Amino acid sequence: MDRRRQRQQRERAGHRAEMLAAWWLQAKGYRVLARRYKTPVGEIDLVVKRGGQLAFVEVKLRRHGRDAAEAVHIRNQQRVVRAAQWWLQHHPEYASSAVRFDVCLLAWYRWPNHIPHAFSASH
Fold first, then answer.
1. Residue ranges per domain, the chain?
2. pLDDT tens per residue, the chain (123 residues)?
3. Predicted local confidence at residue 80, as pLDDT
4. DSSP per-residue letters across the chain
């Protein structure tokens, strides 16, 4: 299989994972404000809100759960934080919301694992 086709398959799997994560969070009472939100400094997989909490969610899909957790490294976290700061500057209506950074891990044959407050903006 050539590299382009492999990349396309990974991208489609990533889209499906983000859709599943959004569905899972909606079932938990979150409202999805944005999906795959692109900023000049990076992309945010999901922006969700429940009550006064605004969460920027990084979604990771891997064959095994431990691999998904290990894929959320410091560079990913910094990218999400920068993109969230950009998002907040351009959506002042959410300025009073409490902000957090969550992770939603997906692995084959497992329920999604939503981890609230997975990392902080202080990196």
1. 3-119
2. 688 888 888 788 778 999 999 999 999 999 999 999 999 999 999 999 999 999 999 998 876 656 555 666 688 889 999 999 999 999 999 988 999 999 998 888 888 999 999 888 875
3. 93
4. --HHHHHHHHHHHHHHHHHHHHHHHHHTT-EEEEEEEEETTEEEEEEEEETTEEEEEEEEEESSHHHHHHT--HHHHHHHHHHHHHHHHT-GGGTTSEEEEEEEEEETTS--EEEEEEE-TT-
Q: Which amino acid is at 31?
A: R
**CA 18 vs CA 1, 84, 121, 122: distances in Å:** 25, 17, 22, 25
Yes or no: is domain 3-119 CATH 1.50.10.10? no
d(CA 59, CA 65) in angstroms, rounded, equals 12
Q: How far apart are CA 110 and CA 81, in angstroms?
A: 27
The single-letter code of the amino acid at 54 is: L
Block residue for tokens 């997906």: 106
Q: Which two tokens stand for residue 111?
A: 């329920």
